[in-house]
Known about the structure:
Layout: H1 10-14, H2 18-86, E1 91-95, H3 99-102, H4 106-118, E2 129-134, E3 141-146, H5 149-158, H6 166-171, E4 178-181, H7 185-199, E5 205-209, E6 212-216, E7 224-226, H8 229-236, H9 238-249
Antiparallel strand pairs: 1-3, 1-4, 2-3, 5-6, 6-7
Amino acid sequence: MTDDEEILDKESLLKLSKDQIIDYTLKVTNFASLAKTVESLSDRLKVVEANLAIASNINNFLKDRVSYLENHVSRLDRTTIDNSQYLRNKQIEVRVIPDEIIKLPTADLKTKMAELFSLTGETITSQDIGRCHPLGANQQSVILEFYDREKRDSMLRSRKNLKDKKEAMKELNTPQAIIVESLCREYARLDFVCRKLKKNNVIKDTWFFNGKLFIKLSEHSAKEKVSHINDIIQMVGQEQVDLVFQQRNK
């Protein structure tokens, strides 16, 4: 029984033959079954729609929760990195040091480093230096810690004066020595990325001073502080950062 087929009244039914009555009865039965099925499907659809609405609400809640947790983890990550670097605020590294100096006893190594530092114009003695030892195997680097942070900072400001002391550095057997801030692993990674971006002409300049990493995107742009890899990604894009790591892995 379709929508355009009419439901017959009693008088019309009396006019039907036996075969017509049988045929009509079958159609009415099928129509009733179909109507019942449609009604059942309609009820089921309402349940599905209600469940979809609940699922949508749950999905939105989970999205908000994930976003909150991502931001929370990022904040914790930044705090951890900053704290790791802060613990190095009295430390410096001296790179490109000959093996015969690297292997000196600690007291003699401190004296040699103090002599090198004094070439910058700062008054430095071995008594200003606390811990002092080679930095890992085969790195030709020394890491040391000053007792006073101001001594460390003045040393970093004056290290540029070594460029005019080449002969004196040769006499100390440290002709290629380079004085740099000691970086925690995360900041060393950020520093590496920024230097590669500069080499790739993606940014104009980058430098690290007093526990902070800065970049300039262009000649006339303001300096930007970088303390997390996400900072760099927001400034130059994910593709440029991925390219740096692809080049490193080749």
